[in-house]
Design a protein that fits this description.
It is a single chain. This protein has 13 helices and 17 strands. A hairpin with a 2-residue loop joins strand 8 and strand 9. Helix 9 runs antiparallel to helix 10, helix 10 runs parallel beside helix 13 and helix 12 packs antiparallel against helix 13. The longest helix has 47 residues. Bound molecules: adenosine-5'-diphosphate. The site of adenosine-5'-diphosphate has 22 residues, from helix 12 and helix 13.
């Protein structure tokens, strides 16, 4: 219920106002002088003050000034006498909300007071809304600074680029891992690619813009870094930008190396005895040591087959460790990529035909020769194309295409097969990693094809990457540097 204070030295006015206002259900207090009015205001809060401007002692104007200073929330209506429009204007200028001239009718008083109280209620509502908004904004600002602190203190490097290619955020770990100095935020990814230390990452970021995620390993100043580059989309699917996360995997690499050394050692130790078992089985199967019956022939035949498969695995493992030890590009020679890819397609055509898969090779004419290890480069594409065939359903399509891209020769091996789930993508170049799901269950493999391909490409100072979408297909891209051209 609104509370009103009436200050007037004329009793008849005071009483009249009190009667009219009480009837409206408002609380009313009266005072016969400014000083007494101020006492009331001091004692309890009021919503509205009806103030006579012309009083002995403390004048209405003086009281108005004090009220505005001490109780700015109280809304003031001044009561003026005849022909005192100037004083009413002066009072309004000093902060009064409205005025009413004596003599007035009860209805006039009611209307003026009601209008003022309504205004006050509206102001209060607006104030509440403002406070709510302020609270909301404060909360958003707090959340923002929390997220910023988290990103700033992360051990992984983070870089965020908006949809126009402008850098909008990066953290100290990002600079530390890439060993680059801080740079201004308004730079675009194109500005940064112009700098040597950015080229590799920048090229990949540009490629991911609006595309599918890419993961790659990079060597930088003695560290091995894993970069995951992902496009960011709104709930409605609108492209918002790209996020790159860098992780130092040097430690994991070192452990990996120890494991490889161990595997190589074991494989090496197993090869001779296994080869000897295979030979002895061959001798028995050939009947050199005497005749063997049908049943024995079958069992020994299976044993020989299994031994042979084991020897193949061992040979793969030894290949891998040789590659990892850096013995890949020992026999560098000028190689013609068209010749190699044509041979790969010929070797694998029967496999493709068995599954009714179209195998296509399209290359622009006269691609430059490269310097490399022919057998190893052939192995890269044998692995990629045979995977394409293995992981594509009957009647599908596997294609190879190539071209020059900047200072690289790019070969793409694509298929419209089952694709690779996003959560497996970062791991498929890991040794022994195989995607495990209903579709891949019946497909055999060692999980060594891609790691071998990757090591060979890297040993030729190139890169290999994959783009894949489940149910759509996969594209493996191999970049081989042209400065190795013959
Ligand atoms: P594997 O001997 O299992 O084929 P790889 O190292 O060649 O080993 O490949 C690792 C895994 O990556 C595979 O097990 C498969 O799940 C997945 N993969 C590789 N190439 C493709 C492809 N073209 N389409 C779908 N999945 C693929």
């Amino acid at each position: 219920m609104a509370s009103i204070l009436v200050v007037d030295d004329e009793k008849i006015i005071r009483d009249g106002c009190e009667r009219i206002l009480l009837k409206e259900g408002w609380q009313v207090k009266t005072a016969s002088s400014g000083a007494e009015g101020l006492e009331h205001l001091k004692a309890s809060p009021f919503d509205l003050l009806l103030l006579d401007l012309k009083m002995p002692g403390l004048s209405g104007m003086e009281m108005l000034q004090q009220v505005k200073e001490l109780y700015p929330e109280v809304i003031v209506i001044v009561i003026t006498g005849y022909a005192t429009v100037e004083s009413a204007v002066a009072a309004m200028k000093a902060g009064a909300y409205d005025f009413i001239s004596k003599p007035f009718l009860p209805d006039q008083l009611r209307i003026v007071v009601r209008r003022a109280l309504e205004k006050k209620a509206l102001e209060w509502e607006a104030e509440l809304l403002r406070r709510e908004r302020e609270k909301g904004l404060r909360k958003i600002a707090e959340e923002k600074s929390k997220i910023k602190t988290i990103i700033q203190s992360m051990a992984d490097g983070v870089l965020v680029i908006d949809h126009e290619g402008h850098i909008v955020l990066y953290n100290p770990a990002f600079l530390r891992l890439l060993k680059i100095p801080a740079f201004p935020f308004d730079q675009t990814i194109d500005d940064l690619i112009a700098q040597e230390e950015w080229r590799e990452l920048g090229r990949h970021i540009k490629q991911v813009q609006e595309g599918t995620p890419v993961s790659l390993e990079m060597a930088r100043g003695g560290l091995t870094l894993m970069a995951h580059i992902t496009p960011v989309r709104s709930e409605e699917g609108e492209f918002l930008g790209t996020v790159a996360v860098l992780r130092d995997i040097s430690m994991l690499k070192a452990i990996d190396q120890m494991k490889s050394d161990f595997v190589a050692m074991v494989a090496h130790e197993l090869r001779s005895p296994l080869a000897s078992i295979e030979q002895q089985l061959a001798v028995i199967l050939a009947g050199i040591l005497g005749e063997i019956n049908q049943k024995q022939q079958e069992m020994l035949g299976r044993a020989k087959e299994r031994t042979h498969a084991l020897l193949n695995l061992i040979s793969d493992l030894l290949d891998l460790s040789k590659i990892e030890a850096g013995f890949v590009v020992q026999h560098k020679e000028p190689i013609c990529i068209e010749e190699i890819l044509t041979k790969v397609v010929e070797i694998l055509r029967p496999q493709a035909e068995a599954k009714n898969i179209a195998l296509e090779l399209t290359l622009p004419p006269s691609l430059p020769q490269l310097l490399g290890d022919r057998r190893n480069i052939e192995e890269v594409f044998l692995n990629l194309v045979s995977n394409g065939i293995k992981y594509t359903a009957e009647g599908g399509r596997v294609w190879l295409s190539g071209g020059i891209q900047g200072s690289y020769l790019l070969v793409e091996v694509g298929d419209n097969g089952m694709g690779i789930p996003a959560e497996d993508l970062p791991h498929i170049f890991d040794k022994f990693y195989r995607v495990k799901n209903v579709q891949t269950r019946r497909i055999t493999g060692t999980g060594l094809g891609l790691p071998i391909a990757k090591r060979i490409v890297e040993a030729h100072l190139g890169t290999i990457e994959v783009q894949s979408q489940v149910g759509v297909g996969s594209i493996f891209r191999v970049y081989l540097p042209l400065n190795l051209s013959a």
